[in-house]
Structure formats: structure tokens, C-alpha cells
Amino acid sequence: MAACPEVLPLPEAVVGSVLLLVLSSNPGPNIVAIVAPTVTLGVLAIVLGVLGWLFFVVKKKRQTEGTYRPSAEESSGPRSVAAPDALKLPKEERLI
């Protein structure tokens, strides 16, 4: 039988078929079962590492780069009220 010249197999379909045929005929361990979890865990580890790094960078920036708004503090008052006896005067010196 002659193949129709109008119907050409797609390269992706041929490669997929060959790959499926090779993997299914291999009596050894299934390579997909080994590669898929390894790649998934690797990508997950990279994503978690990047997110952790971003978290620490943002946290450090918030500590070191604040905004100074004296008008807001004037209207709301100081954050910590100092105790009235925080600045005690020294004892009076007397002559002998």
C-alpha cells in the first residue's frame, strides 16, 4: 500500500510514539517514575528557596528603611512615655 502524500505524520507525534515505545519496551526501572518526582522536588526546592530569600530581604529592608513622619508622631503622641522620675537630679553637694 502506498502512503497518501497529503497526510504526513507530525514530528511531535512521531517523537512521542518512539519515546513511548522505547519506555514501554524497557524491562528496567521506569525512567519517568524516577525523573518526574526528582524534577518536581527540585523545582519546589528552588521556589521555596527564592521565597525564603525574598522574605528575609523584605524583612531586612523594613528594619533598615523606615519612613520618618514627625507630624504623625506629634498628632498621636510619643510611642513610649518616659517615667517622670527617669531623669533624677544628682544629690546636692554640700561644703564640709
From TrEMBL:
GO terms for biological process, alphabetical: inner ear auditory receptor cell differentiation; regulation of non-motile cilium assembly
Transmembrane segments: 31-58
Keyword match Transmembrane: yes
Keywords per UniProt: Membrane, Transmembrane, Transmembrane helix
Name this protein carries in UniProt: Crumbs homolog 3a
